[in-house]
């Protein structure tokens, strides 16, 4: 029962082939990491799954339905990018409330849910602060809370820890794993950091020049010298 199914995805930009025949099945609740050097096709694949980019060929199915048939509000996908992009004039709680607001949830109820989600990511009591009053790691937690508050069926994380220093990064790796396990949300995590991929993933998908080179559990990934 695979939840996400990519079948023979190709993506071209003019004559350039960014993705060449990418196929992948992801199980419900699985934590899958896309690992590979810059330019290998990780983000492009993620953007196609998110529905932000259209594949040149192949198909993407989420929960048994083609992504192209799903309207944006039916996709139910939470996304976090490296440059968190919080709304600077909204408080942390208002940022987290935003996707609920888009779904018609009232302000009172939505802000309460936002506070609960902020507690889950370790930011109890920080809801009234604006992004500029938060550290980089705290801002990234807010972004994570915003991506999770509407109970997405799929969580897409594109180098969410790339801008953080080493200690904070390791702490956040553990936090993200804990939260992902507790919610059981199917997750795709993009990184070019091999140790991060090894420590966090159920399965690692290694990209190389627009193709999937390996796909295996962390301990079964073949290391090249
Ligand atoms: P990363 O390597 O961190 O994944 P990139 O810097 O390669 O990110 O690309 C960031 C974004 O810029 C991509 O999502 C892509 O849409 C866009 N982009 C990358 N390369 C090009 C390009 N040659 N021309 C136009 N847009 C590009
Ligand atoms: P990664 O995330 O692994 O760093 P990307 O998926 O961002 O790689 O990019 C894969 C390749 O596609 C890169 O060579 C990049 O320059 C190219 N690319 C991405 N987006 C665009 C775009 N909008 N126009 C042209 N080339 C692009």
From TrEMBL:
It comes from the Bacteria. Residues 4-225 form the ABC transporter domain. Coiled coil: none annotated. Keywords: ATP-binding, Nucleotide-binding, Transport. One of its GO terms (molecular function) is ATP binding. Belongs to the ABC transporter superfamily. This is ABC transporter ATP-binding protein. The chain holds residues 2 to 226 of 355 of the full protein.
């Amino acid at each position: 029962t695979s939840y996400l199914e990519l079948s023979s995805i190709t993506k071209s930009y003019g004559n350039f082939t960014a993705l060449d025949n990418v196929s992948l099945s992801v199980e419900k609740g699985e934590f899958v990491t896309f690992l590979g050097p810059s330019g290998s096709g990780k983000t492009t694949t993620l953007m196609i799954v998110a529905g932000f980019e259209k594949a040149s060929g192949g198909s993407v199915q989420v929960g048994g339905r083609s992504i192209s048939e799903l309207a944006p509000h039916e996709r139910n996908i939470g996304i976090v990018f490296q440059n968190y992009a919080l709304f600077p004039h909204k408080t942390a709680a208002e940022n987290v409330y935003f996707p609920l607001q888009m779904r018609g949830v009232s302000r009172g109820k939505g802000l309460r849910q936002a506070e609960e989600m902020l507690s889950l990511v370790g930011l109890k009591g920080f809801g009234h602060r604006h992004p500029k009053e938060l550290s980089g790691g705290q801002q990234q937690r807010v972004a994570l809370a915003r991506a999770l508050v509407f109970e997405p069926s799929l969580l897409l994380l594109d180098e969410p820890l790339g801008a953080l220093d080493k200690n904070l990064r390791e702490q956040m790796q553990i936090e993200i794993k804990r939260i992902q396990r507790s919610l059981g949300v199917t997750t795709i995590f993009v990184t070019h950091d091999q140790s991060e991929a090894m420590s966090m993933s159920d399965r690692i998908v290694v990209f190389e020049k627009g193709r999937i080179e390996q796909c295996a559990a962390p301990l079964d990934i073949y290391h090249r010298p």
